[in-house]
Design brief:
mainly alpha, 5% strand
Length: 198
């Protein structure tokens, strides 16, 4: 009489147990162990570093680049304005004179809207330009309650002189760059213009 066949008490010793099932059971047991918890913590820490490197660092680099870019543009504008500093015009005064030169006579209210200023602040700017002889007041052709602001001959001459001085300084500065740098600078100018027009 044959004795009954002995069954292994351990499932891992049973050759009929699929290999994948054994591996799955081992993995489940590992998940319950303290070792696995430590391993997961290490993996999560590595993931945090990866996320920091891939997301946070580029954003910081972008922020630094934007700061550098803003400072560079600001420095260039100050140097260009310094070339015409003898005319002693503020940015607002220069902007108003440019608008009058391009668009022609305008009321204080029109100029204030165009420059996104309060009419009272624009009135102060016009008064300063008028005192310097850069602009003058003329009756409005259709509305007797209003006056138009016009650029005087002196204002036009000063504006042209200031523009010439700025252009001369900038041309001399750009001439000191090599051909590749000039090409890069002019391409950057096109990009800046697109940004400003958005």
């Amino acid at each position: 009489m044959n004795e009954p066949e002995a069954h292994p008490s351990n499932e891992f010793e049973n050759p009929s147990t699929p290999f994948i099932a054994i591996v799955a059971r081992i993995w489940l047991r590992l998940l319950r162990s303290q070792f696995c918890k430590i391993l997961l913590q290490v993996k999560l820490a590595s993931l945090t570093v990866l996320v920091y490197d891939e997301i946070v660092m580029p954003r910081k680099t972008l922020e630094i680049s934007l700061i550098d870019f803003t400072q560079s543009v600001g420095l260039l504008l100050r140097r260009v304005r310094a070339a015409a500093a003898s005319h002693e015009l503020s940015l607002t005064e220069a902007a108003v004179m440019k608008r009058l030169a391009i668009d022609g006579p305008a009321t204080i209210a029109d100029l204030a809207r165009a420059e996104s200023m309060k009419p009272q602040s624009m009135g102060t700017t016009i008064a300063a330009l008028e005192e310097m002889g850069m602009v003058e007041r003329k009756p409005h052709p259709t509305d007797g309650r209003q006056v138009n602001i016009l650029l005087t001959a002196k204002g036009a001459a000063v504006r042209k002189s200031a523009a010439d001085a700025k252009r001369t300084w900038l041309a001399q500065a750009v001439a000191q760059l090599d051909e590749q740098e000039r090409e890069t600078l002019f391409k950057a100018g096109e990009i800046i213009k697109r940004l400003a027009e958005k």
